[in-house]
Write a structure and sequence with these properties.
With 514 residues, the chain is of the alpha+beta class. It has six helices and 15 strands.
Length: 514
């Protein structure tokens, strides 16, 4: 029997219900002492290449410090079995090791008492635990056999009897993972998986110095057992005092003013338990998952005044019987939405919204910048502006003057993209405007007259626009606020037949946007 993959399978089995809940309320049994017994199967990981599953018996006694931590003594009696069939030095060898183990284990709950919401499991309690310990074991492998199945084909030249130790005693370290199912308040069905690392290499009779070995480390083994755990003595709660902990006990309110909670009190707590908080205990609640704050009737179900099967908190026409497809109304137009914005007229504070315009919960058009101009009419929806500028900030006269001056005042060296020194003060004024108005964005367009080849003019105008942009960036303006483009001799603003007209056409145009 192979069960080395039992560990991840057990974890998966316990976690298959994604909505399982850890119980933190007094809704579980408890005892100070637990005794257990079980039977199972072993598997060894030694120097030989195969393993047989052998029966193992287990008994244990545990002291429960509290609901989450326990420690105890465990005794196991059984066997480990190993054999080899393929290599030349051990072909046909087999080992049967009679073992007796005694271990002290500590265990911790990994989410004690899962309660599943399905009806079949409604009152079943599940627990998952893990632990580690230290143990001492006695091994008897004196009946090791040398049954060579193929002596006619193999010569056993490397077999060394000094590698065999038929009787040993050694320490080992057990790692435990277990699962409890409470059949009653006192009795639990138990599954326990134990993986053990031995401080010896002789569990299969051989040490790692063998000439051919499948395991180069100390021997290891595992035991999967099934059995029962039983609480001894009084089964109830640990001592709990109102509002605080007592030693290692968990604190829960007591109806007896700080005395130990009795079984009758436990029963009363469970009978009055109300998981959805609607005032109706679960044992009487026919709708146990009602949303918080929803009014309910005597059975714990949401109110339905018109009796149409749609609870009032979901019914748009709670006093008139209706249909599910109309949200509880008998007809679709019972809750009209004249402007079709998704908000019914009875809730719409801005009726008549144009079709396709996005609205808020009140039916009013969205206004992201809060300037009173709805986004669908706002040319600058993310910047507060004014109505006269269609929702954009108003560009002041001083700023306009600076930009007008730059239109004709920024001059470049002949046929180059180098700004003349006489134009630097004008560009510095533009820098100041951009720093004083952080919401401004600037489009920088370059133009030339019609002398020269069009493609060369376009390239030169673009370089000059980029030169202005670089100057602004170098003086502290974020490049993300700037764009540059060159249009060459396109879009003249004057005639190219006169020197004065050509001068006006050679320009850098600055356009503010938001």
């Amino acid at each position: 029997m192979k069960f080395r993959y039992f560990l991840p399978v057990l974890l998966l089995a316990v976690s298959f219900e994604s909505d399982a809940q850890i119980r933190l309320d007094p809704f579980f049994p408890y005892g100070k002492w637990t005794v257990g017994a079980g039977a199972g199967f072993s598997e060894i990981y030694g120097n030989l290449s195969n393993t047989n599953s052998e029966p193992v018996l287990r008994v244990s006694v545990d002291r429960n410090v509290n609901m989450w931590v326990s420690y105890g003594l465990e005794v196991q009696r059984g066997a480990l079995s190993d054999y080899a069939v393929k290599n030349t030095w051990t072909n046909g060898l087999s080992v049967y090791n009679q073992i007796t183990t005694v271990a002290l284990n500590g265990k911790v709950s990994l989410g004690e008492f899962f309660k599943y919401p399905r009806n079949f499991f409604q009152k079943e309690l599940f627990g998952l635990y893990a632990g580690i310990g230290i143990g001492y074991m006695n091994n008897n492998v004196s009946n090791i056999t040398l049954k060579f199945k193929h002596q006619d084909r193999y010569t056993i030249n490397d077999y060394d009897k000094s590698n065999i130790n038929p009787k040993t005693s050694n320490f080992y370290m057990p790692y435990n993972l277990g699962f409890n199912l409470h059949l009653t308040r006192r009795i639990m069905f138990n599954i326990n998986y134990q993986f053990c690392y031995a401080f010896s290499d002789y569990l299969d009779g051989y040490n790692f110095k063998a000439p051919v070995a499948t395991n180069k480390y100390n021997d290891m083994f595992s035991i999967l057992s099934f059995g029962a755990n039983v609480y001894l003595g009084k089964v109830g709660f640990p001592e709990k005092k109102h509002g605080h902990t007592n030693g290692s006990s968990l604190a829960y309110p007591s109806t007896t003013g700080g005395m130990v909670i009795s079984y009758s009190e436990q029963k009363q707590l469970m009978e009055n338990f109300d998981s959805d908080g609607d005032g109706i205990p679960d044992r009487l609640d026919k709708c146990p998952n009602t949303p918080a704050g929803v009014p309910v009737d005597a059975t714990g179900c949401p109110l339905d005044r018109d009796g149409d099967g749609i609870p009032d908190y979901l019914d748009k026409c709670p006093d008139v019987k209706g249909l599910t497809e109309f949200n509880g109304c008998p007809e679709k137009n019972m809750d009209p939405d004249t402007d079709g914005d998704g908000v019914p007229d009875r809730l719409d504070k801005c009726p008549g919204t144009p079709a396709g315009v996005k609205v808020d919960a009140n039916g009013c058009p969205l206004d992201r910048d809060g300037d009173g101009i709805p986004d669908y009419m706002d040319k600058c929806p993310d910047v507060k502006g004014s109505k006269e500028a269609d929702g954009c900030p108003v560009v002041g006269e001083k700023t306009k003057k600076v930009l007008d001056e730059a239109l004709t005042g920024i001059q470049f060296e002949t046929s180059k993209d180098i700004i003349q020194k006489t134009s630097i003060p004008i560009v510095d004024n533009v820098v100041k405007v951009m720093k004083d108005n952080p919401s401004y964005k600037l489009q920088i367009n370059g133009y030339t007259d019609n002398r020269g080849k069009p493609e060369a003019n376009r390239s030169l105008s673009e370089k000059r626009a980029i030169a202005v942009m670089k100057y602004l960036v170098n003086h502290g303006i974020d490049q993300s606020r700037l764009k540059a483009a060159g249009f060459g001799q396109e879009k003249p603003i004057s005639t190219n037949d006169t020197e004065e007209g050509r001068k006006q056409n050679r320009r850098v145009e600055l356009i503010v946007s938001f």
